[in-house]
Design the sequence.
């Protein structure tokens, strides 16, 4: 439309805080060899799950049923599905199918893959551009294997840099045979994005025969369940959550709420997440029955970030800010109004998190110490953003003491009543 020679032209412009575009934190990433179900043709399976390519599917979808339910990947999906909560039908998954290999080591090499060729685990890094979803809860197969107790599992060793690059966390399986082996395994891993779980779990195959699966698969399912209970927001821990769909743990781990010397407490002290059984009538058990996951920490060194739900919550805020602020880039000149709109956008994200009791408080401001004329001239600003995630409630100390004033009150009451 041409502007009039005489008259009025109206152009609408608004630089306002943008509504938050929440990051999706509950997509599961799976990686490993896959076996087709008996009724599926080879060609159909290869077409549905190309080798070393990210594929998006629902954990209870027709595509998921193409995977043999008793295979390693099939059991992982069964454990994930068993943890889903009320009204949850399926978990969103991205899988990278890798070569089975001639032996365990060859299969593991396929999972490790190549960064340059974008194979194995590295295929998950490019899921966003390939399938429109980025997995942020990773469960790779074959993480419990070790050549020796002093050697890190190759899959776990490869994970850390991949997780950092996509703002993801992973659950991995310790060997699970005994306490010493689990602790030795944990000592080969250090990452604020990796949770070590133990032991394995027992369940039944399609014919009713006993088989085992990895607790890590159930752990990522628990994250999906907890996120769904809170509008997809990943600020809650999975500690003290019941694990469904299993018959038993592959090894019994003793747990006692007041005794730090038992195995379950010792594993927690080493940042290992154990599965423990409830005990009816035992006041010091974690529950009256069922199987309960007690993991809440990653295997990082920094005490501030050891609670893994804090890492996921921080990821959510940062990713949501990125997704929301990008709407301004290139569209507006850097003016005072634009700067205020950006600051207010981040404040709104943090204000909502505070209102939901996900964080304890925050500060968000245009930082006068970091910003300078040269940066502003090039269109660059610094926004000082600080907030504190709510920690998980993990211990209470009861100070049980005599209360002498109660005796005085009793005497005074008796005197007042003239009973003596």
Sequence:
């Amino acid at each position: 439309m041409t502007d009039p020679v005489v008259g009025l032209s109206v152009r609408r412009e608004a630089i306002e805080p943008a509504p938050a575009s929440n990051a999706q934190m509950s997509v599961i990433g799976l990686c490993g060899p896959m076996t087709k179900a008996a009724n599926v043709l080879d060609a159909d399976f290869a077409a549905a799950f190309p080798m070393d390519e990210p594929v998006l599917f629902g954990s209870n979808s027709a595509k998921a049923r193409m995977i043999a339910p008793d295979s390693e990947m099939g059991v992982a999906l069964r454990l994930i599905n068993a943890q889903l909560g009320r009204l949850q039908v399926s978990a969103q998954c991205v899988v990278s199918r890798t070569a089975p290999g001639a032996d365990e080591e060859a299969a593991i090499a396929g999972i490790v893959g190549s960064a340059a060729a974008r194979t194995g685990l590295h295929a998950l890094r490019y899921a966003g551009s390939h399938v429109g979803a980025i997995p942020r809860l990773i469960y790779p197969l074959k993480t419990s294997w070790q050549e020796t107790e002093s050697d890190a599992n190759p899959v776990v060793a490869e994970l850390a840099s991949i997780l950092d690059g996509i703002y993801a966390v992973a659950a991995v399986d310790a060997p699970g045979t005994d306490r010493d082996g689990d602790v030795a395994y944990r000592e080969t891993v250090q990452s604020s994005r990796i949770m070590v779980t133990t032991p394995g779990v027992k369940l039944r195959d399609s014919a009713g025969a006993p088989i085992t699966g990895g607790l890590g698969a159930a752990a990522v399912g628990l994250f999906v369940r907890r996120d769904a209970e809170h509008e997809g927001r990943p600020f809650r821990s999975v500690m003290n959550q019941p694990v469904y769909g299993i018959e038993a743990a592959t090894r019994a781990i003793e747990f006692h709420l007041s005794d730090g010397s038992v195995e379950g407490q010792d594993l927690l002290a080493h940042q290992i997440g154990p599965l423990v059984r409830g005990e009816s009538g035992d006041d010091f058990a974690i529950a009256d029955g069922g199987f309960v996951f007690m993991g809440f920490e990653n295997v990082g060194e920094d005490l501030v970030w050891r609670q893994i739900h804090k890492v996921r919550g921080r990821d959510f805020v940062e990713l949501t800010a990125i997704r929301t602020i990008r709407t301004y880039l290139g569209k507006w000149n850097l003016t005072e109004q634009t700067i205020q709109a950006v600051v207010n956008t981040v404040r709104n994200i943090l204000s909502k998190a505070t209102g939901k009791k996900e964080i304890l408080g925050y500060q968000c401001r245009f930082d006068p110490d970091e910003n300078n004329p040269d940066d502003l001239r090039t269109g660059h600003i610094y926004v000082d953003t600080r907030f504190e995630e709510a920690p998980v409630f993990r211990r209470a100390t009861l100070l049980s003491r005599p209360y002498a004033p109660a005796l005085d009150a009793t005497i005074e009451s008796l005197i007042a009543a003239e009973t003596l």
